[in-house]
Amino acid sequence: MPFALLGRIALFALVAGCHLVAIAAIVGHGPSPTPLRPAPPVIEARLLAPAPAPVSTSTPVAVPPAPPPTPTAPSPRTAPRKHLTPSPQSSPRTARQRPVPSARPAPEPPPALALALPRPAAPSEPAQPVEPPAVQASDAAPPTVSEAPPRETPVRVEAAYRSNPAPRYPLASRRLGEEGTVVLRVRVSADGAVSQLDVGSSSGSARLDRAALATVANWRFEPARRGHVAIAAAVEVPIIFRLEN
Fold this sequence. Notes:
Strand content: 5-15%
Structural class: alpha+beta
Number of helices: 5
Strand order of the largest sheet: 1-4-5
Oligomer: single chain
CATH topology of the domain at 152-241: TolA/TonB C-terminal domain
């Protein structure tokens, strides 16, 4: 009896051990557990409302109403007076702009005639006044009376016009209708001949100027005179070229 019970217990223990081995094998070959990851930290932001302004607890003071203005009579309007306060910087300028009027100096007497004398060697001895030498009446020369200069008479151009031939009118100038006045500067010698001749003012036509020069170069003039003496002088002679119908 005890041997049979022991055999049953051993068999039961063997079967239980086999089951445990099988369960351990199944559990060992199963999927490995996944490691747990730590959760990320959470940042929390909060908006703080501004602190309320302190409320004044003092009671308002009642302002009494202003009394109505009393009507007054209008006073005459006067221009405001400007009060000028002198500054320390502007006082010198004011003094310069408005100088104090000084007394007018007395007119100086006319300068007296003084003689230049040498300075004395000794300052203690006063210098003796020197009297100017008396002018002898016989030494004074009698005043000379200057004679008036002789009268000068210029060259007479009118006489030259009457006694000399007139210039010839160029034929080409007649056909072209050229007109004008040429003024010649003539130097007349003492014997009345032409010593120098040139054009002072042109007529506008070279042909008319040449005709006037060629004619006046042979003219004879009445020379200028100083008193009764003939002298050389210059004179201007105008020559007019004009076409008539």
